[in-house]
Structures are given as structure tokens and as C-alpha cells.
Write a structure and sequence with these properties.
alpha+beta; elongated; 5 helices; single chain; 3-stranded antiparallel β-sheet; about 25% helix; 4-stranded antiparallel β-sheet
Length: about 180
């Protein structure tokens, strides 16, 4: 009888600790949430991205290009686990939409200058799907070079970002500048 009680107690303890992970989009806390890649504060819900993994952890990105950088680094694959969901702000409404089902237009002025805005519906011929858009970002088909020039930033010999004030930032990241 003690053995059955012990087994039942262990079973109850294990099932009580287990919780269902919600993959529903979260609201941005603009005072606290920062991009996982560039560490900039989130500023524009029309271009921000969030990824939720099977543990319920969230990674925020201020631009689709920052998500692409994370995916390309290999770290995202380790972090995401078996099940994950990516949400992106609709460039027209700012409402969360499924990033992998969205349509992407090129030419938007996005927070980090990659230039891709997501739309919930296909509104024209010059739109891309998620996989194509991620491939284009990997191939450097972005507005990033113009963005860097406009922000008076440059890329040094070793790939580090240099801001207009001469400040060096981590590779692929910028923590300030003019």
C-alpha cells in the first residue's frame, strides 16, 4: 500500500509541475523588451518579431533581419526545441501575424534597415514567402547598406560595426552612434 501511495505521489508531483506552453503572441513591453540580436529596444510593432519555443521562452527581434541573423548563426536551432512559433507585426496594421505564413514586401524602412515588411494577405505580385525572404536576407538582398550609410556607420576590417562617433560595436550589432 505504501508503494502505491508513493508512486501516486510521484505521479501527481510530476503532472502538477507540467504546464502547457502558450504559443499565442505576447504584448511588447516597450520599457523592457530588447532585440535578442542587436540589443536595441523594440520601437515599431509593425516590424517587430517574437519567437516562442517549446519551453515558453520568448526571443524578441526589432527587425526580420535580426531574426534571420539569429537563425543563420545556428543558435536559434538549438534554442527553438521541437516546437516553436514565430510572430511578426503586420506592416499595415501592427497586429501579430504568423511569420511563416506571411507575405513579405521589399522596400519598407524597417528599424534595422533590412527592408522587409510582412503582410497577412497577398496584395501583389512582388511579394515573397517566408523562406524566400530569409534566403534573400542571407544573400544580402536588403536595404542594409543604405541604412548603414544613412546612420553614418561603417563596417571595419574585421567585420565589426563602427558608429559615426567612432564607437566600436560587436560584430553585426550596434549599441549607439550618431
Amino acid at each position: 500500500m505504501k508503494r502505491i501511495s508513493y508512486i501516486l505521489l510521484v505521479f501527481l508531483a510530476l503532472t502538477a509541475c507540467r504546464h502547457e506552453v502558450s504559443f499565442e503572441p505576447r504584448s511588447i513591453n516597450f520599457d523592457r523588451d530588447v532585440c535578442h540580436v542587436c540589443k536595441m529596444g523594440l520601437t515599431d510593432p509593425k516590424y517587430n518579431v517574437q519567437a516562442i519555443n517549446s519551453s515558453g521562452e520568448i526571443r524578441w527581434y526589432d527587425d526580420l533581419g535580426c531574426l534571420a541573423e539569429d537563425i543563420n548563426s545556428g543558435d536559434f536551432d538549438r534554442w527553438k526545441g521541437d516546437t516553436y512559433k514565430i510572430w511578426i507585426g503586420d506592416a499595415g496594421t501592427g497586429k501579430w501575424i504568423d511569420a511563416e505564413k506571411a507575405y513579405y514586401r521589399y522596400g519598407d524602412r524597417t528599424p534595422m534597415g533590412y527592408g522587409y515588411g510582412a503582410l497577412a494577405t497577398n496584395a501583389g505580385d512582388s511579394l515573397y514567402d517566408f523562406k524566400t525572404t530569409m534566403k534573400r536576407i542571407r544573400e544580402n538582398k536588403t536595404m542594409r547598406a543604405d541604412f548603414i550609410k544613412q546612420k553614418k556607420m561603417s563596417i571595419g576590417n574585421e567585420g565589426e560595426m563602427k558608429c559615426g562617433g567612432g564607437m566600436k560595436c560587436a560584430p553585426g550589432k550596434c549599441g549607439g552612434g550618431n
